[in-house]
Amino acid sequence: MQVSYASEATPGRENEDFVAAGPGWVVLLDGATAPPGVDGGCRHDPAWLVRRLGGRIAAGLAAEAGEPLPDLVAEAIKVTGEAHAGTCDLGDPDSPSATVSVLRRRADAVDWLVLADSPIVFETSAGPVVCRDDRIDRLPSYTRAAVRAARNSPGGFWVASTKPEAAYEARTGRVPLRGLRRAAVLSDGASRLVERFGRLSWAGLLRVLDEEGPAELVRRTREAEAAQPADAAGRGKRHDDATAVLVRF
């Protein structure tokens, strides 16, 4: 398994994405930028969360104990919470949060986990297989209060924050290794070329990643963002941290 990636912050800001890889695995987290005026009861920012939480997940994957991916992510959320429970209000629903996407190769298949909107895309002999968690796309309202109430709540959407049980709400599955050529692990800042801007199909995104590299996908993302009017309608930021990971099998 060969892994390459590019990660670039929103222009002028700190990168709140995190990616790590080892023999047979990849983990990617995308921190949720806090809205202006919201402190979440925590002295730490999303960049701190993704590094601490991502590091714990990576350590678990590197240990190769073979535990189910939701168990591994739940333990990482628990341990990360314990690291700042004494200084921060872990009961605040606005506490820093992140997406989690994990890919792990087994003997004859690839296990995957996706929590919130950072998809994994596999290229199989039958075409692209998109593994995504679209619950945040189906909320009835996107006001600050509505999103706050829906976060890590039944009927809403789930993210990695302070509740270990969120890991068991992740989308999970397994893709047979036979016929599998490559995969992409993407923060939503990189998947937006398909999902928001419509400039590529999933097959086209995989082709760009493989033939031109992850940095080119990020460059095209910045180009598409710059082409949008400053007051473009629709939910979401004009610019975002963008991380694209290519996995060849």
What would the keywords be for this entry?
alpha+beta; Protein phosphatase 2C domain-containing protein; 5-stranded antiparallel sheet; 249 residues; PPM-type_phosphatase-like_dom
Structure characterization notes:
With 249 residues, this protein is α+β, with helices and mostly antiparallel strands. Helices cover 29% and strands 25% of the residues. Helix 1 packs across helix 2, helix 4 crosses helix 6 and helix 5 (202-212) crosses helix 6. The longest helix is centred in the N-terminal third of the chain and has 17 residues, at 46-62. The mean pLDDT is 94.
In short, what is this structure?
With 249 residues, the chain is of the alpha+beta class. The protein has helices spanning 46-62, 69-84, 144-150, 188-195, 202-212, 214-226; strands at residues 2-8, 17-22, 25-31, 98-105, 109-115, 120-124, 127-131, 171-176, 182-186, 242-248. The radius of gyration is 17 Å and the shape is globular.
